[in-house]
Amino acid sequence: MHSFVQTIAALALASVVTAQQLCNGHASLCSRSYSNITYLGAHNSYAAVPNSVASNQLVNVTTQLNDGIRLLQNQAHQNNETGSDGVGISLCHTSCDLLDGGTIEEYLTEVVAWLEANPDEVITILWVNSDNLSPSLYATVYESTNLSAYTYSPPTSLTTLSDLPTLSSLIGNNTRVITFMDSNADASIVDYILPEWDFVFETAYDSTDATFPCDLDRPSGGTSDGKLYLVNHYLDTEIISSVLIPDTAALDTTNGYASLQANYEGCYALYSRPPNFVLLDYYSIPTNGSVFSWVAELNGVNYTAPTNGLLGGEAQSENTASGALSWWNQIATEAGESTISSVAAAVVTQTMSTLVGTRNGSSTSTSWGEVGGRGRSGRELGLAGTMSLGVVGVVVGVLVGL
Ligand SMILES: *[C@@H]1O[C@H](CO)[C@@H](O)[C@H](O)[C@H]1NC(C)=O
Ligand SMILES: *[C@@H]1O[C@H](CO)[C@@H](O)[C@H](O)[C@H]1NC(C)=O
Ligand SMILES: *[C@@H]1O[C@H](CO)[C@@H](O)[C@H](O)[C@H]1NC(C)=O
Ligand SMILES: *[C@@H]1O[C@H](CO)[C@@H](O)[C@H](O)[C@H]1NC(C)=O
Ligand SMILES: *[C@@H]1O[C@H](CO)[C@@H](O)[C@H](O)[C@H]1NC(C)=O
Ligand SMILES: *[C@@H]1O[C@H](CO)[C@@H](O)[C@H](O)[C@H]1NC(C)=O
Ligand SMILES: *[C@@H]1O[C@H](CO)[C@@H](O)[C@H](O)[C@H]1NC(C)=O
Ligand SMILES: *[C@@H]1O[C@H](CO)[C@@H](O)[C@H](O)[C@H]1NC(C)=O
């Protein structure tokens, strides 16, 4: 019996040893530095509330990761709702009254479950720390969810990009999560929450220019030398003066090969290297995975559609592509208007409660939640009844582009 067990163990070991190591799906990526790979990111990864104008994605984070998204960009806000660890930080878009995607604890629990099921994958998390909260609050959640166990802390001597470990080393040490934060990161408080602007620069966000200019936008006055770079490749459209919403009608083009390739080439001309991160809205449109086949080509690997993600045929649920694409048109039709710009005009000439009421067929409806979306917690927003025209304009203005 003993020797049988030993034999089985020896065979198991042999098969482990001979199996080819894959890193983010490809053997050839194992020996490459973390900084020598282009990763696709989900802009506001949590913002996948059905038919909400404040959404940026169609599917939850598990599906995003299954599909091949490897950068999770998230806006975090102080909130009264706390996780079981007592920390009140939620994933909201501009305001938790507008789109409340739940606590970061719920979200990170989902991410950890995925990491445990996918031991050969390296991911990046980028926090927009909207309320300048202390990194120690985030660390409490990293610890309560056990994400801290998987998160990489660089040696203090880390100075250049080429010193970043290879994927194989990150996987070998099981430190497969790199975390950046845009404000208030402090290595003396939490060493694994890296100050974004020490390591990364970005091109402009909220672009309404489909050529996506590559100039360094943030950190203001910063340099590209020795830094990773992130290209914000999501297009907004201005429906009325300074009111930006994702240009969902252009997604087939924006997320198509030609637009991504042209953006990459433009940036290559400036920086002589490809971007490390490309951030997308509604990455799953078009549904044929064009964004992933593009990035595979850039990384010199072959794209294989996953079997378990959205792109592997998983249903899109009620939050469909057509739902996102037609949101404004639907409102337009139901409000008796014909185009997006006439809806915009309606927004400034009617109260939101009238629009909401029209949308759901009840002139007395006062639930902004019907239009603005509600969080995972199912919280009704209930603002419409008292909303003045000015508030509607401000709310619509601030929510959509950021
Ligand atoms: C990775 O290195 C190879 C070889 O030098 C280079 O061709 C490629 O552009 C690099 N990719 C990134 C994202 O730096
Ligand atoms: C994520 O979405 C998929 C597809 O709709 C669903 O099957 C899965 O249960 C969701 N996961 C979580 C944790 O909600
Ligand atoms: C959050 O808590 C503060 C302090 O208790 C309170 O003043 C505020 O109204 C609460 N906000 C919400 C949205 O519940
Ligand atoms: C946390 O993750 C590490 C690394 O996989 C594991 O060794 C440890 O058991 C986990 N702890 C908990 C409480 O799940
Ligand atoms: C752990 O990381 C160190 C430093 O990057 C590296 O030298 C070592 O090979 C890694 N260990 C494994 C098992 O990959
Ligand atoms: C993916 O779909 C888009 C939109 O329908 C189309 O333009 C593109 O050619 C398709 N790409 C591939 C690789 O099939
Ligand atoms: C990609 O697939 C082609 C055709 O199957 C094959 O010839 C090539 O070697 C593959 N490239 C890589 C990097 O695996
Ligand atoms: C319209 O909204 C009101 C208030 O939220 C709700 O009670 C009602 O069920 C909705 N009607 C439809 C048809 O969805």
TrEMBL record:
Instruction: Indicate yes or no for the key word Protein biosynthesis.
Output: no
Q: What is this protein called?
A: Phosphatidylinositol-specific phospholipase C X domain-containing protein
Q: Which PANTHER family match?
A: PLC-LIKE PHOSPHODIESTERASE, PTHR13593
List keywords of the entry alphabetically: Signal
Q: Give the signal peptide range.
A: 1-19
Q: Name one GO biological process term.
A: lipid metabolic process
To which species is this protein native? Saitoella complicata (strain BCRC 22490 / CBS 7301 / JCM 7358 / NBRC 10748 / NRRL Y-17804)
Q: Which InterPro entries match?
A: PI-PLC_domain, PLC-like_Pdiesterase_TIM-brl
Please report a single Pfam family linked to this protein: PI-PLC_X
Instruction: Tell me one GO molecular function of this protein.
Output: phosphoric diester hydrolase activity
Q: Does the keyword Signal apply?
A: yes
